[in-house]
Amino acid sequence: MNILIKSATIVDSRSPLNGKKTDVLIEKGIITQIRSNIKNEKGYKTVEANNLCVSPGWLDMQARFCDPGIEHKEDIQSGLRSAAAGGFTAVCMMPSTEPPLHSKSQIDYVINKTKDAIVDVYPVGTLTHNREGKDISEMYDMKLSGAVAFSDDKRPVKDSGLLMRALQYASNVDTLVLTHSEDLSISHGGQMHEGETSTRIGLKGMPALAEELMLQRNFKIAEYTNGRLHSNCLSTKNSVELLKRAKADGLKVTASVAAHNLLLDDTKLSDFDSNFKVNPPLRSKDDIEALKKGLLNNVLDVIVSDHTPEDIENKELEFDLARFGISSLETAYAVANTACAAKIEQAHLIEKICHNPRTILGIHIPEIKEGAEANITLFDPTADWTLEKKQLKSKSSNSPFIGMSLKGKVIGIINKNELSLNN
Predict the structure, then answer these.
(1) pTM score, whole prediction
(2) How many domains does the chain have?
(3) What is the pLDDT of residues 372-421, one digit of tens each?
């Protein structure tokens, strides 16, 4: 496909072109010219918009596509459409499927089903067999098939010895372990953040201690093994401090934050809307400010969607019975931008959804330069818009952002010699 992008500001902190407004010509999937004014002499497809920005394609490090086994919530194709609409040219697919992605054949299934898609899919294999927390999975075989990391997703590793052995083995095969930090003996039965709001409305709380205690344990094991550990979706002020100290001590640790934890606080649950029920939960305003500061100071490395599609049967029922999770791929950038634009420069924000995830995973980072393959996200960081349910590409609509005003809109993506534009 041949495309001419007109008057776009390049957002790429690692490029000498960062901040420059220019035209970009793409021919047969390759960037052939970057100039101030390129004439469309051959009648190529033109992409132009007010306040148009382009950056290297974004990667979401934590999304669930529910395929195989739970396709009524999401399947790979609907997940890919959601990712493209959200500006992501790549996603890490988490292993919480049925059966889980715990063997070579399951990784092969994902790779084969997504190889021709405009969105690159990087499967994450389970850390333990069947996500049961008992025996280490076939990590090496799965890595050979294309798994980029290993995790039991939202199931924390209770057994300290197992996590120690998993990190040691992962180091031997040069791979990464992703963990969810939650001590279930403390948070068990919790419905939301433990604080003033949970006390006032009478819901059992999930103390910040449950996250911080497990995070501290995980860091001690990472220190002992010298292994590479990535903590998914940190949510508290003290967790940011623990991460800062661990990095200062030279540990090989990184961490992400979910976009919604940067914008929404626990008071949103006052009306018992289960679409705000997530794990880790929405925390206090003080926690949110600490998370933003952690991003600004490069303590927190990555922003993720934490895309968790759920059907009506699992969301529209009594609050304590409703499942955790937000369908969030399509709104992750807009939510993070709405939360952070006043404090964090756009190029710095894009690092958290483009460069850093790939660096952590050891994946090639696309570049906007002549001769490079076009792997590009097009967006307008200044656009004000309101999400409508009909705009969602996901099979599930468990989003608290429907009807909410957001700032920053994705225009489309270019990857693998294909163009996908949002309506």
Answers:
(1) 0.97
(2) 1
(3) 999 999 999 999 999 999 999 999 999 999 999 999 999 999 999 999 99
Confidence of residue 423 (pLDDT cuts 50, 70, 90): confident
Which tens digits make up the pLDDT trace of 313-344? 999 999 999 999 999 999 999 999 999 999 99
d(CA 423, CA 31): 24
> Is 70 part of a structural domain of the chain?
yes
> Which residue from 342, 333, 338, 321 is spatially nearest to 384, judged by alpha carbons?
338
d(CA 127, CA 138): 8
Handedness of CA 366, 368, 369, 371 (dihedral sign): positive
Closest by CA to 363, choosing from 26, 9, 46, 57, is 57
| Distance of alpha carbon 211 from alpha carbon 186, whole angstroms | 9
301 is catalytic: no
Which CATH number do you get for residue 353?
3.20.20.140
Helix axes 285-296, 237-248, angle to 10 degrees: 30
Q: Say if CB 355 and CB 13 are below 8 A apart.
A: yes
Residue 310 lies in a domain: yes
Neighbours of 422 (CB within 10 A): 17
Choosing from 120, 287, 306, 380, which is the catalytic residue? 306
Helix axis angle for 237-248 and 208-225, nearest 10°, is 10
pLDDT of 35 higher than 90: yes
Q: Left (φ > 0), alpha (ψ -120 to 50) or beta: where does 153 sit?
A: left
Q: Is the pLDDT of residue 142 over 90?
A: yes
Tokens for 54?
């382009």
Say whether pLDDT at 370 is over 90.
Answer: yes
In a domain, 109, yes or no: yes
Q: Is residue 346 part of a domain?
A: yes
Coil, strand or helix at 89: strand
In terms of residue numbers, what domain contains 275? 57-361
Choose among 343, 239, 218: nearest CA to 281. 239
